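Team,

Forwarding the record for the chain on the shared tracking sheet. I've put the sequence and predicted structure together so nobody has to dig through attachments.
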Amino acid sequence: MKKIVIIGCRGQLGQALMQILTPITSYDVIGLNSHQLDITDQNQVKKIISNISPYVIINCAAFTNVNECEEKENLAFAVNALGAGNLAIVAADLNIKLVHISTDYVFDGTRNIPYTEFDYTNPLNVYAKSKLQGEIFVEKFAPKHFIFRTSGLYGHGKNFVRAILEQCKDKKEIKVICNQIVTPTSALELSKCIISMFETENYGLFHATCKGQCSWAEFARVILHIAKLPNEIVEVECSEHNAAVKRPPYSVLDNYMLELTNSYNFPDWEIALAHYLRNEH
């Protein structure tokens, strides 16, 4: 039985992976949260991962609050960069596979065509810079690595979809940013993609999102349409939304390498969203 370690098992992606992998009898799935494993502590990482001796590590742990990362830069780099590096070193020492999750925010969004894995990165904020450094450490230290960049992730727990639905309870009109373009991606669909890859030897960097693109305001409108809610979405620009931290205005990813190397096919983002809403709400 192959042991699968999921680090950050209480996050949106971690929960989705646990949900899919746990029933599979050929896997022994071990979920670790931040209280059980501090990935910024190299000695702890080495001890715990060595004792488990897994087939693959899936690192879903991250400091993802973009605004807080600006205020807590040291913590952002400790978790998103150093933590990823610690896991990569241990994975290399034990000759095991490492799956690492990254972000569309590594790009500056100055163009209006989807980014491939071969496009130059230019992160605009501390969160994005720390995540890019995490990618660099994983690529440098762990030969058997899969790095997945994703966009607009939602699943179990706190996310954009739930935030919109919660606001609908109290507000008739909801203000949502209209000048940032992303691809909403279901944690469940990303989990299926990851699982389809980690049994292979197609190591490297992959973009992994649902198909299509939209603004956050358009995303919100589709949420309300599927949920059959009468509320109104009011479009605002980032400058009106008191967005103190720079974010890429366009961060749509092209799943170029995934389509070249793997048969997994992401659905359109609207289809994945409808499935999520049917099952979650």
